[in-house]
Amino acid sequence: MSKNKEEAYQEERERLEYTIDYLIQNINATEDYKNNFKSNIKEAYENLDPQDSSQSYINIIINSNLLETAIKNYTSYKKAVKKPYFARIDIKSEASDELEKLYIGKTSLFKEDNSPVILDWRSPLASVYYDGRLGEVTYDSPGGEEIVDLVLKRQFTIAEGELENFVDIDITANDAFLQAALEENADDRLKDIASTIQAEQNKVIRAELKNPLIVQGVAGSGKTTIALHRIAYFIYTYENIFDPDNFMIIAPNKLFINYISEVLPELGVEDVNQTTFTELMEDFIGFKFKVKNPFEDMETLIQNKTNENVDLLKWLLSFKGSLKVKDIIDDYISTIKETFVPDEDFALQENIIVKKENIKRMFLVDLEGIPLYKRVEEIKKNLKYRFGLVKKQILRETENEFDRKIQHIRNKEFESEERRLKLVELINARDEKLETLRKDSTSLVRKYITKFPKTKLMDYYKDLFTNKETLMSYVGNDLSKEQIEYLSNYVKSAISKKTFDLEDLSTIAYMRHKIFGLDKKYSIKNVVIDEAQDYSPLQIYALKQIFNTNMFTLLGDLSQGIYSYRAINTWDEVMNNIFDNKTDYMTLVQSYRTTIEIMELANDVIKKLDNQLDLAKPVIRHGKKPEIESFDNENEVIEAIYQSIEEIKDNYTSIAVICKSAEECMYLKKELSKKGLTELQVIDESQENYGAGIILVPSYLAKGLEFDAVILAAIKERFTMNALDLKLLYVALTRSLHRLFIYSIRGNIEALNQTTP
Ligand SMILES: Nc1ncnc2c1ncn2[C@@H]1O[C@H](COP(=O)(O)OP(=O)(O)OP(=O)(O)O)[C@@H](O)[C@H]1O
């Protein structure tokens, strides 16, 4: 080691020691504070005077808030002790000539004079580390763009509080840290990448929040990982505006949620909502139902079994997710709302309190923005209020009216039996009238309100989508008779089985939102959708309307759009029709997951799709060539799979055997267990997790996941050249980090026949 490097090591060791000491001091101080706060709170409760407790309450609140902050720092400081930072940057700003040495980590720590001991990776200045080459660099600060001279960029390997190594990055050096990170094995959880975020990823993480953002990124470009870092970034940057529970991640399934579950806590962020679309819809719709497994249709389509309705089924799935359905619902609601208000004035007997025209105006115009049944509630409140204002007056005037007549007779007529009878009659009539008025007034508002429709959500849904005449009146010539018939039968059967498609759920949820409103108020302001290419336009539109926000981050890859028969086909569709052209669009083409050899093969496959998307560019990481073999009989394929598993099982943490369908996975499990591999687990969509080890997984379920080694098997199923099969194949090939084996019956993987001799 050169003298200079030795000196630098010494300096860094001392600095690390100092930082860890300082962290420990803070941890100890925090522990003391925590104990003090607890006893302060206890004291405050003990001193609580029920008559005049304001001071004690204030004490409790102040101390609880402080306690919260102390606890928050305490946890992150404790985590930071083993590895307080991962990088250092030295910068010179224009304002001062002094060199500033900044250490970047996953938490921030300050000295008493407010100078940083550790700079949080999310702070504006830390952006320089991710974006900047040595020399003049700019970054966005709260006060505007700043320019600094980046003099040094250093990366550390620190483990258990010990400095193991550091590397300085100059203009030409490869990112050795990134290389090392990518060499690691995959387990069953995604990891944080705070120390190795790349410049193009940093741009996505820090892209403005106010506009919707769409990220089209190739397989393995870090979309899922970045989505989570973006949330952590915003929670830090807008600490005073957003709470973690203002954020929601919508993921494809529970397996996936589990797979990503460690990243945010690792970044010091807890309590972000993480859910699946189905779960969210259950919450919106407010009652239990069965959801048709989306893979069922997928299985029907990929197994290519002759089914005369495949074309109609494809049409139906795509139609149900289209914005056309939203237009139909909007038109339907426009029609039903016209006849919602009773054709009757709000009146206490002959006394009109509010004219029907005014109630109608209130319903249609004044309350326009809110759901129909919520409008009824508002009208009820309004009528109650207005009736309260005039009720006494009506009674008084009625009484006066009678009294005037009585007085008139008394004044004008001589006493006689006839006069007496008249007076008795009038007095009785008055008392009777007043009594009926009083009686009617007790239930007047309620009775009027019962004249508004009281239809159930599912009856509206049924009316609109199963009644062919109703449907016809809204779709006009857009659908053929056959399509209307098919749709209405499909929905009828779904209702009777109480089993719905994902698309039906967005339809029902959207109808509920517009007609009834939801039970809960949601605090969600920012929605992050991963694997967004699998969503239908209606699904995204419904979420936007229901959460009433534009702050969406959609991440996806159209090349992996295996549900394109029912989902988004182009991002333009989303930008133009859902977010009104105000969307930011970014692309990621660098792929970090797989080796060059594997990515080249996957690219050869996806090129055949000709969807004009950028091909993935793998980072410079070489590995073994994919092993591709085809055989004439099934036993040979199974034997080859078995041999490969035996060969690699001790070297890797996670190995997946990917088959096209679930059925083939089950078949292979049986065959491999005959050979002694009895522990293999077949993954299905209901599963919440899979441990590391060897698993069998259908191609469509492998999406989003990754494994050290992948064995792709095509024994009974074929991967043809159609778009769906090419995408499924691409998804399967791009799941592997290090090794790829492809074993098939000869000719079963058409795309490979054409790329390999
Ligand atoms: N900057 C980075 N540093 C280290 N590892 C990275 C980086 N970016 C991505 N990775 C790794 O690359 C792999 C792929 O990341 P991720 O799963 O987030 O990509 P993706 O775009 O969502 O993939 P896909 O669309 O194929 O599911 C992960 O193992 C992730 O840790």
From TrEMBL:
It is an enzyme of class 5 (isomerase). GO terms for molecular function: 3'-5' DNA helicase activity; ATP binding; ATP hydrolysis activity; DNA binding. It catalyses: Couples ATP hydrolysis with the unwinding of duplex DNA by translocating in the 3'-5' direction; ATP + H2O = ADP + phosphate + H(+). ATP binds at G217, V218, A219, G220, S221, G222, K223, T224. Residues 196-595 form the UvrD-like helicase ATP-binding domain. It comes from the Bacteria. Keywords: ATP-binding, Helicase, Hydrolase, Isomerase, Nucleotide-binding. Its EC number is 5.6.2.4. GO terms for biological process: recombinational repair. One of its GO terms (cellular component) is cytosol. PANTHER family: DNA HELICASE IV, UVRD / RECB / PCRA DNA HELICASE FAMILY MEMBER. This is DNA 3'-5' helicase. The lineage of its organism: Bacteria, Bacillati, Bacillota, Clostridia, Lachnospirales.
